[in-house]
Amino acid sequence: MDGTRVYPDDTAGPFPSPPVTFGDRDGRTIVVRPFDPDEPQVDALTEMYVQFDPADRAQGIPPSGETRVRNWLETICADGVNVAAWHDGRVVGHATLVPDVDDPAAVDDVGEIAWELAIFVLQEYQRAGIGTELLERLLGHASDQGIEKVWLTVERWNSPAIALYKRVGFEVCGSESFEQEMAIRVARAGEGSQESG
Amino acid sequence: MNVLLGIEGSDESMRTLRSTIERTSEVGDELTVAVVEKPEAKRSQAEMCEQAKTLLEEAGVDAELTTLEGDPGSALVELAERGEFDQLVIGGGTQSPMGKIRLGPITEFVLLNAPTTVKLVR
């Protein structure tokens, strides 16, 4: 079914590259920057997911318990493109792209393959503009590396998330079931958004 | 218990088939395996019937094997309604590269429409 996904004809963006420092809606100073999977950073990210409210899980992720979280993050950090939002030395938000291929090591051109997106913001930092910033900086960071095709699934009843994705430029695609599939074609850096035809 | 297992031609269905056969031989359930039509699946309906037949024979499980034509979800629900089934078993979804669980349209239809208890096999 992945082979048949339809991406928008028009590109969205360009999106700004990380890092960025900004004040969120609650007046906290937040830094969004590319995530380096070194040990202290992975520990900080693990800590965020261990604290994550199980009620905010979506489609089985993040997994619960530190061991499962670490296993899950191992794949995401090894093969993925990641940005994290930091406040006071803690990770409070994370956005990631994971390559949609069986063998990530064999990929020559990251622009040819599709990438699956996910984003999580710690409960007490939600509704403060951090999600939008994470999403846009992740797409900026991705397009700097030549990534173009990004998709995601979102629970069909999660209208705030769907609205956020639409605002950034994602379009609904694929068959609807419990999850809604959405896709975006990211403008190359410096390209500007383009109408096709 | 009288169990109806619905499968199509995916790896998810193969896993569900194996696990259900194992469960059936452990607890001595009565089992009916219904193979539905899903043209885009990895294995054809005929191939899947062969697989089921072989695995059932290997396990020594005496089950009824049948094929269903037409829309998979509604065909399964219809059969569940006609028979004396206690439980309808289907695959519990696939995982995205990210690890998100994805339930397809057949699963959604069955969950919302089946008169019996539904079991999703992970």
Automatic annotation (TrEMBL), chain A:
Pfam families: Acetyltransf_1 (PF00583). InterPro entries: Acyl_CoA_acyltransferase, GNAT_dom, MshD_Acetyltransferase. SUPFAM superfamilies: Acyl-CoA N-acyltransferases (Nat). Residues 30-191 form the N-acetyltransferase domain. PROSITE patterns: GNAT. It comes from the Archaea. This is GNAT family N-acetyltransferase. It comes from Natronoglomus mannanivorans.
TrEMBL record, chain B:
Residues 2-122 form the UspA domain. It comes from the Archaea. Gene3D superfamilies: HUPs. InterPro entries: Rossmann-like_a/b/a_fold, UspA. This is Universal stress protein. It comes from Natronoglomus mannanivorans. The lineage of its organism: Archaea, Methanobacteriati, Methanobacteriota, Stenosarchaea group, Halobacteria.
